[in-house]
Design goal:
CATH topology: Spore Coat Polysaccharide Biosynthesis Protein SpsA, Chain A
Number of domains: 1
Radius of gyration: 23 Å
Structural class: alpha/beta
CATH architecture: Alpha-Beta Complex
Low-confidence stretches: 19-29, 59-71
Shape: globular
Helix content: 25-40%
Mean pLDDT: 86
Largest sheet: 4 strands, mixed
């Protein structure tokens, strides 16, 4: 009797520990948002409309014309796509980017905002007014972030045939140059006159200590045969894509069927950092620069998040440093900044940030 009174509690404790070890991560970590069938069908309908419209867009006479030599073409536009699950804290800086002391020609850009509908977002005015697209919930470590980016691309493709570049922007992102500097960098009129091919600016890397864990995040070798391990890439979530590559993204079905699967190992699951670089690396590796135009500081990452800049770090020298890249081109954007950086950044708008 005495032995039973000791053994039974011990066995109960042992079983409880084993159960906690097996199920603990699933209980303690937030449950991944699944993509419902209606949401998936709704997105597919949007993608089909955008793809079909690409072959039927008329030459709209109301578009401002730009004469290059003997040819007259519509000026290409940049679609700025903001992906957010909170207020756009840095909208005043972006407002100045688009509409500063020398307002930018509105025929040269469009703005689209995907805001998580489960979060209350403060009303936006100026260039951001009425720029929200129909959105669905997003969650870190889930394929919903891929869906949101694809949704933004489809809306921008469908909305305006003049959109030639598509820049995905974080709510924690700031510009490092003026709009004109960025526009001229992407769409040099000399390139247009020579009809040169434009590249997409997206980070594509095949070396990472955690790459195998990330590859198997949904289950060991589950990505095969569509994506072999040597084809699996990692890169920044934020990119600047051409219209050609944006269409590739919304046309894809094969890779999406793999990347939309729920991760078993949530701690190694960052679908949005793999789907876009893997897809474009497989489809058109020579059409991408393989680096991003958004500077992110990963030197002291915390829980998978990059370094967050705070007011004490904000200075003109920081802006100059953030512009510097390992490529021949300057960084155009930077993240991530805490909301209280807004005032010190605003103080150097004209003298530093937009003074190219």
């Amino acid at each position: 009797m005495f032995r039973l009174s000791v053994v039974i509690p011990f066995l109960t404790l042992l079983i409880s520990v084993l159960i906690l070890c097996l199920l603990g991560p699933k209980i303690l970590l937030p449950r991944q948002i699944s993509i419902s069938v209606p949401d998936e069908l709704d997105d597919l309908s949007l993608f089909h409309k955008a793809i079909a419209a690409e072959t039927t867009f008329p030459k709209h006479p109301s578009h401002k014309k730009l004469r290059l030599g003997s040819a007259t073409v519509r000026p290409p536009k940049i679609a700025f796509m903001f992906l957010t699950n909170s207020d756009l804290q840095f909208s005043p800086i972006w407002e100045k980017f688009f509409n500063g002391t020398k307002p930018v020609d509105p025929h040269l850009y469009n703005i689209y905002i995907h805001a998580d509908p489960s979060i209350k977002i403060s009303p936006l005015m100026g260039v951001f007014k009425d720029r929200f697209i129909p959105a669905k919930r997003t969650q870190r470590s889930s394929p919903t972030l891929i869906s949101a980016a694809r949704r933004l691309l489809a809306h921008a493709l469908l909305d305006d045939p003049s959109n030639s570049y598509f820049a995905l922007i974080s709510q924690h992102c700031i510009p490092l140059h003026s709009f004109n500097y960025f526009y001229n960098f992407l769409l040099d009129t000399q390139k247009l006159s020579r009809k040169m091919e434009f590249p997409s600016y997206i980070e594509i890397l095949d070396e990472s200590d955690s790459l195998l864990d990330r590859y198997n995040a949904r289950g060991e070798n589950l990505m095969e045969p569509e994506v072999k391990f040597e084809e699996f890439k990692v890169g920044s979530q934020f990119f600047v894509l051409t219209r050609k590559h944006s269409l590739m993204v919304i046309k894809d079905r094969k890779l999406w069927r793999k990347f939309r699967k729920t991760c078993i190992n949530v701690e190694s699951c960052y679908p949005e950092e793999h789907y876009f670089p893997t897809l474009l690396s497989m489809e058109d590796p020579n059409g991408c620069t393989k680096y991003t135009l958004t500077n992110v500081n990963w030197t002291d990452t915390v829980d998978g998040h990059p370094h967050t800049y705070h007011p004490s770090e904000v200075s003109s020298q920081l802006i100059y440093d953030l512009r510097e890249s390992n490529s021949t081109y300057s960084y155009m954007f930077a993240r991530k900044f805490s909301p209280d950086c807004l005032n010190p950044l605003m103080e150097m708008e004209d003298s530093v940030i937009f003074k190219d």
